[in-house]
Amino acid sequence: MLKRLFSGTSALILFILRRDRVRIPAWLLLVAGFTVACVPLFNNMFGSADELQGMAEMMQNPAMIAMVGPVYGLDNYHMGAMYTNFMLVLMAMLAGAMNIFFVTRHTRQDEEFGRLEVVRSLPVGRLANLAATMLTAVKMNAVMALLIGFGMVVFGVDGVTLSGSLIFGAAMGAAGLVFAAATAVFCQISGSNRTASGMALFYLVLAYMLRAAGDVGAEALSLISPLGLTSRTQAFVGNYLWPIWVLLGAAVAFAVLALVFAKVRDLGQGMVAARPGRRHAGRLLSGPLGLALRLSKTTLLVWGFVLVLFGVMYGSVMDQMDTFIGENETLQQMFAAGITDGASYTDEFVALLMVLMSAMATIPVLGLMLRLRSEEKQGYLERVLAGSVSRVKMFGVYFGIALVASTVFKLISILSLWSAASIVLDAPPALGTYLSAGLNYLPAMWVLLGLATLLIGFFPKRTGLAYGYLGLSFFLVYMGNLIGFPDWVIHLSPFGNIPRLPLEAQNWVPLLVLAGISAVLVGLGLAGYRKRDLT
Fold it and tell me: Which residues contact 295 (CB under 8 A, 6 or more apart)?
């Protein structure tokens, strides 16, 4: 019986590797390569004992613990301990995203596009495709773990030992497998690829929030989060294996549950039946705007909720920044570059958060715009355009939703941050200061949106580059000053050209230039979309 259910698994593994012969190496190069390459960079930035001590004291701040995780190895704080404190959770999140996209691509997406039905018409077992996907994920994460484990030690950095590097890589691989297996479960529960992907990404964000809340206060929350368990390995310090075994056990449990669900459900359906719609559509669905809003509802609600939670989480620790940094001379020197006359360390923290929250808000904005390409790829858009709806109108509808959403997302993130900060701070911050600092980044977000429209118009098969440029832009502006990049490199990011209120004076010129660039990109994208063939 089992042999029949899994018949053809080996052949499907080879088929998946053939399909993703470019994607898998690219993901591994991104995740493992970035993790390894940052080791010498951090060593150059914080190689001295004084700089390491300053980082150790800064990492003990609850705000930093909420961002990147708890601090270990303070008795002998070397570069390996600092690197783990700063990077392990963030890199585990990146590995989780890699696994989420990989599993949805080869399970629910193939099923939705009808590819899995073709595969299942061959002498292939009912569970072969899911098993092949999970086994390929195991191999992919194992290679990633080995690349990281043996790659980090080649630089000879103090404290970066072979055993610690292998633990670091194994922790990332085990966390990635948990998210891969959990995504497989969501793909069985949901009846659509969009919903399954949304559930998996929400689980990733939820795991981060549980870890943040647990590391700051209730540790039990961290122990039920894959990311919290990842940090408990204490790579380069304690080198504990038990969190990795727990993560692998959780991955096996999720995988078994996914296989059980896959065995009993019908092809094309989810374990949770889709809610039947009304017999007659409402007036909202009588036009393209209502249809696009209906399709975008989940993205708008989920990401709105996520941005509110992030704002509240970071706003709740705002009262500790001035006191914590003000009592430490080393940290004062580290932050002095960003402080202007009359500004506080809280203002510096706010400026940093505005970059982070703007980049986060850009993710769903790009998703809303690129849904136009997704509907085209799945063949749904052709049915709409076959009627009286023009391409220009459909393009304008999706662009309009993304444009309005960019402002709405920024507003709710700013208001949630300000509301939480107002509760914990003795002197409530001025709402206008937060609004101006946050809304300043809208033109930068619009440049990314314009790039997405340009890709839709001319390079529809390369729309993923918009997310890649977003990641690069955030890295340049978030880590550029820390690493020591020259100003012209940081300015390659649209976020790097925005005045950092309230630390800097307002300058409208770069905002107008960025808005003009976004307008040109949108115009070009629309022109290309009108003329090219649908694919």
Answer: 371, 375
